[in-house]
TrEMBL record:
<feature type="domain" description="Micro-fibrillar-associated protein 1 C-terminal">
    <location>
        <begin position="1"/>
        <end position="117"/>
    </location>
</feature>
<protein>
    <recommendedName>
        <fullName>Micro-fibrillar-associated protein 1 C-terminal domain-containing protein</fullName>
    </recommendedName>
</protein>
<feature type="region of interest" description="Disordered">
    <location>
        <begin position="1"/>
        <end position="25"/>
    </location>
</feature>
<dbReference type="InterPro" id="IPR033194">
    <property type="entry name" value="MFAP1"/>
</dbReference>
<dbReference type="Pfam" id="PF06991">
    <property type="entry name" value="MFAP1"/>
</dbReference>
<dbReference type="InterPro" id="IPR009730">
    <property type="entry name" value="MFAP1_C"/>
</dbReference>
<comment type="similarity">
    <text>Belongs to the MFAP1 family.</text>
</comment>
Length: 145
């Protein structure tokens, strides 16, 4: 029973300290707050090594739950290649360098960087009254000077 009372009191004191710290930070100016966070950065407990992704490697998110637990399981490198990611896809022909090659739902492009997406014949590029009205009334950053 004494342990429970002590634990409750410690938790209450911890909450009070957090409230006071939060209030202290809220009362600071932006410049003071920035300097404070530069001097005392928050420590991330489960920060693992950050790896590099290979060409067309599948991305796995490490998740957001249980990240406050200190466990080696959470510190592993999530950028490691798994299964088919171990193969070097750059030596394949250009046609086969796509995700899910040969499947019905595969993507056609690896990146849009190497694709020319400007289509001058599209409806958006035509000079018409409707487009003119849209650009100068609703489109962002366009004002009639």
């Amino acid at each position: 029973e004494l342990n429970r009372i002590k634990k409750d009191r410690d938790e209450r004191e911890q909450r009070e300290k957090e409230k006071q710290e939060l209030e202290r930070i809220r009362n600071m100016t932006d410049e003071e707050r920035r300097l404070e966070f530069l001097k005392n950065p928050k420590l991330q407990v489960n920060k693992g090594p950050k790896g590099r992704y290979k060409f067309l490697q599948k991305y796995y998110h490490k998740g957001a739950f249980f990240m406050d637990d200190e466990d080696n399981l959470y510190k592993r490198d999530y950028a490691e290649p798994t299964l088919e990611d171990h193969f070097d896809k750059t030596i394949l022909p250009k046609v086969m360098q796509v995700k899910h090659f040969g499947r019905s739902g595969r993507t056609k492009y690896t990146h849009l960087v190497d694709q020319d997406t400007t289509d001058a014949s599209s409806a958006w590029a035509q000079e018409s009254a409707i487009n003119h009205k849209f650009y100068y009334s609703k489109a962002a950053g366009r004002k009639n000077l």
